[in-house]
């Protein structure tokens, strides 16, 4: 498995696992978040961990299989010799199959793959606006491991800015929030809430992501009409429904009884993937069956270009806007990332020789607006550390709840994910 595909699988697996946790907490409301932002921020934190803390984070983020120290997808077993190898052994190692040699390097490749993907996503000549920025804010009196700082700068382009958390915590919080607002074109405000930073804070890691893309074929405003959106089996609301007819990739998945539509943005590097059940089949949003069916393997299979057909289709899609906030400490702990939040168990020895740190909060905010022109989306994550195809219909009418994903097609990485229950 190539390092890029390894990261895509890890990120998408994490995205879907996180979605299911959000859905468990609220099975009827809107959901919107950037799994890529959360994953990138936590991956930076993981650079400074060791032992059980690192293992738990790696498993939750999808970098390794549960109960295994090896990254997921590596079936090769490697024996590392401390003694000097026999000349024949050296020749064998030189000719070692790539899958075996790569298994040694995948922990490094997680970060190297992030660096490669960040470079691809932040293309200055792209036909869309996409900016992903990372930043470290460290207490000016605290001694951080230089190796950790060098790695976060090398792989995540995350510069360290020293702050006076000890005596000016509130001013520091405002400073960080202002940087996030600037990076997200004012879409994400007040990422760090009051009292989230105090005199015991040693480090705040932030990832900010902003995207604005125009549809490859835009909806015409003059044909947008008022129409009913079915919230559930009993309730409806009137929304602005956009409409257009054009050739798009569309498929029907029989096992999940849903249609899947790809709406590409200009340049086709990014697309919105919409999963729409044929009808509301349960007493909530009508998405329960689809949500249970959805796994990384199925998502990848269902959205493959050779699985979907390019056909002329009439699309009806509501305009919508969402802004969501999440405190991820409880969610990440329930997913298995326990030790990082407990100073008596955490191992941040790679971040500081004092090894007296633990994560105090992981906060995430995300914004999305979809209209006739295209999509504008932004998100930020802050981490504070202290003490099958069949006959396809010719219409795609999104007049009831659906799932949607904004994906970078070359890498297959999911940048944003959401559920629209009520426009």
TrEMBL record:
Q: What domain of life is recorded for the organism?
A: Eukaryota
Q: Which PROSITE patterns match?
A: SERPIN (PS00284)
GO annotations of cellular component type:
cytoplasm; extracellular space
InterPro entries, A to Z: Serpin_CS, Serpin_dom, Serpin_fam, Serpin_sf, Serpin_sf_1, Serpin_sf_2
State the SMART domains in the record.
Answer: SERPIN
Q: What is its main location?
A: cytoplasm
Give the UniProt keywords, A-Z. Acetylation, Cytoplasm, Protease inhibitor, Serine protease inhibitor
Keyword set includes Cytoplasm: yes
User: Could you tell me where this protein is found in the cell?
Assistant: Cytoplasm
Residue intervals of the Serpin domain: 16-423
Q: Which CDD domains match?
A: serpinB
Q: Which residues cross the membrane?
A: none
Gene Ontology molecular function: any one: serine-type endopeptidase inhibitor activity
Q: Which proteins does it associate with, and in what oligomeric form?
A: Forms a complex with the monomeric form of beta-tryptase.
The record's similarity note reads:
Belongs to the serpin family. Ov-serpin subfamily.
Give the protein name, as stated in the record. Serpin B6
Organism name? Neogobius melanostomus (round goby)
